[in-house]
Amino acid sequence: MAAAQGAGSSLAGPPIASIPGHSSSTAVVVWEWKDELGWWRPYKVNVCNFIEQGFQASQQKGQRSGSGLVSSSISLGHADASLAPYVIDIPSLMQFRQDTGTMRAVRRHVFPRDSAAGQGIIWEWQNDERGWFPYAMNICDLLEQACASNHQWVDFGPLGYDYEVDLVAQVQTNKTTRFRRSVRRRVDSPYPVTSSLAPVHTGTGCSCQQCWLNGGTGPITTRYRNSMINFPNSSTAPQVSGRTTSVGSSGVGFVPYNKPALSGARSTQRLNAQSSWALPQAGGAVGPSTGLSTSNGVSTVNLPVKMSKPSKLNQALAGMTAILMSAAGLPVHLTCVPQAASTHKATKKHSSVKEGRKVSKKAAPTDPEAVVKKYLVEVKGTPADEDCIICMEKLASPSGYSDACECRTIKPEMVGRLTNCQHSFHMLCVLAMYSNGNKDGSLQCPSCKTIYGEKTGTQPKGKMEVSTFPQSLPGHRDCGTIQIVYHISRGIQGPEHPNPGMPYTARGFPRYCYLPDNDKGRKVLELLKVAWNRRLIFTVGTSNTTGESNTVVWNEIHHKTEMDTNLSGHGYPDPNYLDNVLAELAAQGVTEDCLRK
After folding, report:
1. Domain with CATH 3.30.390.130 in the chain
2. Strands 103-112 and 27-34, bridge-based pairing
3. How many CB atoms lie within 10 A of CB 289?
4. Which residues, at least 6 apart from 398, have a Cβ–Cβ distance to it below 8 Å?
């Protein structure tokens, strides 16, 4: 499918010249999505074009039928291949990720033709990994206004936000810590032209109900210290005067931390059993419906979802059904059906496992010297040509760590052999290796990876939820499905993490994973519970996908996060998956023997 049409598209709506605040009869539109921290982030120009085309088509069909917006969904993969998992449901203004079930709010902003968006001007900030990310479009417009008026500084202090931007040096500075990060101005293609009825953004704030309830716009930094909320009396543009631009007269307010009641900072969500999934419009309410409608010549399924009471399982089931329908090439509109007696078999909830710092009730020695002496036996007469693979010195020579690691009872020349695998090392080298690790009372042979004791990891605190439902996975048609949901929130790194005291992020949570509900699948589940309690499922490190550091990542135990397809390698069918994950668990010291204890 081609990208959306730009100016002059036949999908344009009625003129808007009569609306206050418009500088002309046409404007430009920017679509934005809300991230997990409550910040609105604009889609790329070509993606906005594509979304707007679908929105205009839906609006026109609704006007002809007299029912507002008709059921319509937009698959973003048609505009950008990297966005293939994402679908936007227009009436509910929600973005749905098909492989994880994550849902995020989206919104539509209209700006004058002479705004930054209308000229294709984007202001971006640089994160700690030297990547560039756009400011929210109303902030881009504010910075561009100041730049056009030859103002050097834009100060957000009057709003309680402790940052200022030097437009000449192109630097954003935290006024308290003086931490600086680069900003830049980039010219791209203009955002798509629209003439649809909507209030045009003329400054920092927006007074529309959608923005008030789902606010959270502001300069984005990786040190999320503040959030911004839009108050309903926002109606004026910031006044630019003097050499410094102060943004204090609009109805936008900054608060020290997120206020979910107003800002909706925790925007990532699942299908809500209480929501109607229909956005009321001036022309009438969009109610639940069934059957097929068409948008741009493509059949759209109006999918009624039976959700009698709030339930994470019901929410996930609704998401899974949408995944299956979307995989078949059918755009999906999610609605709720009226309350009625259910004929479906009740879902069985297995457990909810909270993970804490205590991972074992069994006391184990953690004193470094005691651990080394427990698993290594001192040997004499070591062959002169054998190396210690830890320090790369000959075993007949003193340990290479004799200068860095001192011990009264373990001498540099002492050599030990691990009791099971029989590999030999300088005992002082093993002591140094243990002291530099998790210090949990366990050792892992650096040669063959045999684990001695009970290995634990550095997984942050969180919760693991388990449930089952009768729907089968491809390749396992003879049984139902086990669903695992992992919840981890962002926090501060502890002494066991790479950068103690620094924040870590937790992207993409909750994470939904699937196993077949058969004997082997249930065995894997029980071993995953052991691994979770030992803090082995996740760790804090650098994401292989995004390159982001100081974030929660998987820890070498692969999970299936898709139900209906294995195109990405993260779904079913995969006949070898259960055997592979059992081997990965065993490599972490989690075997069937753990279930007998």
Report:
1. 348-356+457-595
2. antiparallel
3. 17
4. 412, 413, 426
CA distances from 474 to 34, 220, 301, 485, 572 (A): 33, 42, 23, 20, 6
CA nearest neighbour of 106 among 86, 85, 132: 86
Q: Whole-angstrom Cα distance, residue 564 to residue 311? A: 22
Question: How does DSSP classify residue 505?
Answer: B
**Is the overall model pTM greater than 0.85, yes or no?**
no
- Residue 594 and residue 532: Cα distance in Å, rounded? 13
- Which positions ≥6 away from 541 have C-beta within 8 Å? 498, 549, 551, 553
Angle at 591 between CA 590 and CA 592, to 5 degrees: 140
DSSP characters for 242-267?
Answer: SSEEE--SSSEEEESS--HHHH----
Fold of 368-452: Herpes Virus-1 (3.30.40)
Pick the CATH number of 348-356+457-595 from 3.20.20.370, 2.30.29.30, 3.30.390.130, 3.30.230.10: 3.30.390.130
Can you tell me the distance from the alpha carbon of 534 to that of 527, in angstroms, rounded to the nearest whole number?
Answer: 11
Q: Is the peptide bond before 573 cis (omega within 30 degrees of 0)?
A: yes
Per the CB < 8 A criterion, the answer to whether 418 and 452 are in contact is yes
Q: Give the C-alpha separation, 139 to 122, whole Å.
A: 9
337 and 288 Cβ atoms separated by less than 8 Å: yes
pLDDT tens figures, 253-309: 322 223 333 233 333 333 333 333 333 333 333 333 333 333 333 334 444 444 444
Query: Look-up: residue for tokens 């996740």?
Result: 538
Give span(s): CATH 3.30.40.10, the chain: 368-452
Residue type at 507? R
Tokens of residue 47, six digits: 């993606």
Query: Using CA atoms, how far apart are residues 103 and 313, in angstroms rounded to an integer?
Result: 15
Q: Would you tell me the crossing angle of helices 519-533 and 577-587 to the nearest 10 degrees?
A: 30
Q: Is 428 helix (H, G, I), strand (E, B) or coil?
A: helix
Six token digits for residue 474: 């491809």
Place of tokens 């085309």: 53
The sign one gets for the Cα dihedral 389, 394, 397, 400 is: negative
Write the pLDDT tens digit of every residue in 393-437. Answer: 888 888 888 777 777 788 888 899 998 898 999 989 998 888 877
pLDDT tens profile 540-550: 998 877 788 89
Q: What is the DSSP string of 198-257?
A: -PBP-SS---SHHHHHT-------SS---EEEE-TT--SPPPP-SSEEE--SSSEEEESS
Q: What's the first-to-final CA gap in the chain, in angstroms?
A: 57
